[in-house]
Write a structure and sequence with these properties.
This protein is an alpha/beta fold. The protein has helices at residues 29-38, 50-60, 67-72, 88-97, 112-125, 139-149, 175-191, 293-307, 315-335; strands spanning 20-23, 42-46, 63-64, 78-81, 101-105, 129-132, 156-166, 197-203, 213-220, 224-231, 233-245, 249-253, 262-265, 268-270, 277-279, 284-285. α5 (112-125) runs antiparallel to α9 and α7 crosses α9. It is globular and about 70 Å long.
């Protein structure tokens, strides 16, 4: 069955404030714990490191439980997993089968077939399944998406995304699966559709089989294109999204101070003559209210569970990202030096 990311997947409303267990309380999971506590939703913490759990309990409260105890507890409505992606499918499936609403950090699994199984299971049981594509909840990206959808940039032409840094090397995922889900999620959010074609090439410097750099080209209906570059051996950090339209261009640069993270450039291109005429314009900073992306993401998850609403990054959106990842991976493997 072909699962469209735009098709709604209704969930039954909880009708009250959800109680959440966080599974995986490490470097990123501890931020889940803090935010759920601040949102008044933290019920339990699960982690094999008892000292980590005890320290977080002292700060934020919550009960120290095992995963089995969480899944058997009728007082726990939802489970948020901040675990290695290779564990997402099995853990997410167990939680859904136990009747829990589920939040999975990105990517939702390491195979589209597994992601589709989770989507179908959540829909069959009327449960919320949400994927942690956090940049969809970044206030600056939300403002950029509004500019695109409101026609301020004209017709969308091209998107370029660069996510480069030094470090945070993961295994067994390569750099594509570790970093590019963010970029693919944003690009699909801007285009509103999946690509017609995906091409990719990787570079293998630290391992013969695990890419350290990847460049991906996406072709969408209507002659819209996108390019994504990711690396974890780049000397400086760069997180920049450039959107080119027929009427204006915009840049979301997460390395800039907040007041300049979103810049709008009303450059003009006149292609009516033999040689196109380019007229540059001064860039204008777009005012955006500052918020914490993770808190907004988790607030959204709680609201969707409470009200039975469709998450912005639901299982179907996560599945669409997995399909792009698989196509890009296949293209990289085909070109990998033997």
């Amino acid at each position: 069955m072909n699962v469209s990311p735009l098709r709604p997947a209704p969930a039954r409303p909880l009708g009250r404030e959800p109680r959440v267990a966080v599974v995986g309380c490490g470097a990123w999971g501890k931020n889940h714990v803090r935010n759920y506590a601040e949102l008044g939703a933290l019920e339990a913490l699960v982690d094999r490191n008892a000292e980590t759990v005890a320290a977080l309990q002292a700060q934020h409260g919550g009960r120290a439980l095992s995963l089995d105890e969480v899944l058997a507890d009728p007082g726990i409505d939802a489970v948020a997993f901040a675990m290695p992606p290779a564990q997402h499918h099995l853990l997410g499936k167990r939680a859904l089968e136990a009747g829990k609403h589920v939040f999975l950090e990105k990517p939702m699994s390491l195979a589209a077939a597994q992601g589709q199984e989770l989507v179908e299971l959540a829909e069959a049981r009327g449960l919320t399944l949400m994927v942690g594509h956090i940049l969809q909840y970044h206030a600056v990206f939300s403002a950029l998406r509004d500019l695109v959808r409101g026609g301020r940039l004209g017709r969308l032409r091209h998107v370029t995304s660069r996510r480069l840094a030094f470090g945070r090397i993961r295994r067994p995922e390569d750099v594509l699966w570790e970093l590019a889900p963010h970029d693919f999620s944003m690009i699909l959010g801007l285009t509103g559709t999946e690509p017609e074609a995906v091409d990719s090439v990787g570079a293998y410097h630290l391992s013969e089989s695990i890419a350290d750099l990847a460049s991906v080209h996406l072709a969408f209906p209507g002659n819209v294109t996108a390019d994504v570059q990711v690396s974890w051996i780049h000397p400086v950090k760069e997180h920049r999204l450039v959107v080119i339209g027929t009427e204006a261009m915009a840049v979301f640069d997460d390395g800039e101070p907040w007041v300049r993270k979103l810049m709008l450039y009303p450059h003009r291109i006149d292609a009516s003559g033999e040689v196109p005429l380019l007229t540059p314009a001064q860039g204008d900073a777009v005012a955006v209210e500052r918020t914490e992306p993770l808190k907004e993401e988790l607030r959204h998850f709680l609201a969707c569970v409470r009200e039975g609403r469709q998450p912005l990054t639901d299982g179907r959106e996560g599945l669409a990202v997995l399909r792009v990842l698989e196509q890009a991976s296949a293209a990289m493997r085909a070109k990998r030096p033997s």
